[in-house]
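A favour between colleagues. Tell me how you read the following sequence-structure pair.

===
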Amino acid sequence: MKRMLFVCIAAGFVLSLWTSWAIAQDYVGSSRCMTCHNSVNPNTGYNIWEEYMKTGHPYKLNAVSGGSPMYPDNTSPGVPAPPPGTDWSEFVYVIGGYGWKARFIKADGKIFTTTEEAQYNLETQGWVAYHYQEDKAYNESCFQCHTTGNSPDGSWNAQTADLGTFSEPGVRCEGCHGPGSDHVANPSGVKLPNQGRDLTHERCGDCHQRGGRTNAIPASGGYIKHHEQFNEMMASKHGTGLLCGTCHDTHIAGRYPEAAGEGLKAITKECSSCHPDHKIYVNGMEKNIDCIDCHMSMASKSAVGKQKGNGWEGDVKTHIFKINTDAVTKDAMFTEDGSAVALDNDGLAAVTLDFACLGCHQSKDVTWASTYAKDIHTNGIRTMPDYVGSQRCKTCHDNVNANTGYNIYEEYMKTGHPYKLNAVNGGPPTFPANTSPGVPAPPPGTEWSEFVYVIGGYGWKARF
């Protein structure tokens, strides 16, 4: 009993210290970070501030100052106008607009839902409804992953109470690294709060999940919902060994690779780094097919999903990786009510072939895809038809051809090509009349019974 009391007191003391430390930290704003990190970093070899400001995170929430928000060069085409029938002066923020879609925050702190043209989709350059005519307050439960330094206390908007507050719009430096006041005061002596795994994995999981850090993957409308990469990883064998930072450099633009500095890539590790033997051969030849084309198919939807022939395509790549090679459609990928991705007995998910294959092979079906997908890395793909033999050709071509004016089969069988290799059946091969004089005997001292083929013998020579 005494020991348990001691443990509880000690734990409470440690928690008190941690809470005091956490409270002591203040958010200083990304402009303070820029003062030291706006030059080439000797560890990364690039300007961290400059490259990060080309990624999508800083533009999760964008202030409206009488016109469309600005985005970095070579990234978003932008949001050309507010919802039809409105004016920019009615809005204070745009949610997103960098990668997939844009939604609009009114001056009263509410999300615009009034008409069926409330969300702008970048891919289609068109408008769709968003929670049509619902009263949607832009509160902390919404903006916690769109902002830096969010808190449920107070209100960022003077017209509507209890919305919560934030220190900066967008996910800026401290949004991932944690509040930086102590670090700014003593850069060499105090590290930022989030380091190592907490920064490269757990912090990502704060926002890139729905419903908690579990392997349950919410879905809707026949697609995986967006920003669920953490859930997907938990439903994948990769979730036990890989961190987000294993493959991603989040300081580099990934949605728009052409925006990144010369030689820089957001994806720092290729699949082949760990899977060097997983290649695909087509008709015996190695093909340069990108692993992610199949294993990270567009099975998730942020703004736009569409049917492509017999295939389906969302607008976000999945992190499930595993492919279900059975001849089943996407209905088998989701639970009966369509609200989540179905899991196997080991708690793992898999993507069906109408996402993995038929997005490209649109005229085919899952039965066709399944014949190739099973053991594809072992057996490869054979697209060439089977050989049927010249006797099958003869059935149609052993008569006068209307185009050539002669019997193609008959004439071809007088040429030398059919006799490049000739079977031996106890005697010399036979050749067409008025052609080769033939091979009268096998090599001296031998008999025909010793041989199975004669090479040539039609035109110049014979070998045995």
Notes: Residues 2-24 form the longest helix (23 residues).
